[in-house]
Amino acid sequence: MQFVIDEDLLIEQLKSESDKDEAFRHLITLYKERLYWHIRNIVKSHDDTDDVLQNTFIKIYKNIHNFKGESKLFSWMYRIATNESITFLNKNAKRLQTTNEEIQQLAINNLTSDVYFEGDTIQLKLQKAIATLPEKQQLVFNMKYFQDLKFKDMAEILETSEGALKASYHIATKKIEAYLTKD
Questions:
Q1: pLDDT tens column, 14-49
Q2: Where in the chain is the domain with CATH 1.10.1740.10?
Q3: CATH 1.10.10.10 in the chain, residue ranges
Q4: pLDDT tens digits for 55-76?
Q5: Which intervals hold domain RNA polymerase sigma-70 region (predicted)?
């Protein structure tokens, strides 16, 4: 049975002091898994993903009154999750006095020992290929390939044009293909 979401009603309840907590629990139920995998594709580690997901929901809860309805609620939450993930990576890189690329590589190297990673050697090689991409191409590739988001939705989330995203995705797939087919 497909559960239909009346987004306007949910937003109204989220902004209502009397309904906010119950509506927020419902929101978490609806979006927790999708946001988890979006974040996981960026930060790689299960434990780090849980931390970023928690921070994302805290930010959503605290800032729902600022949601203007200019985009879908889903897009607004994905934007927060994306920004929280990038902030997390930047903080880690700064704390470890290294680059985001090196943080990504370390995370991928740790995937083999991550009990929550169920991928095989091909999945691991794909993750390594994705890690070689610039940040924006990684985001676009992950959102399209793993979550099958429409370019229109990604344009709202990343606040850019569909054409730019299509070009980024095309370039990213070519780079990944080249990485996967070399020796």
A1: 999 898 999 999 999 999 999 999 999 888 888 899
A2: 1-116
A3: 119-183
A4: 999 999 999 999 988 888 999 9
A5: 27-94
* Integer Rg of the chain from CA: 17
* Domain 1-116 coded CATH 3.10.20.810: no
CATH classification of 119-183 is 1.10.10.10, yes or no?
yes
Give the C-alpha separation, 26 to 24, whole Å. Answer: 5
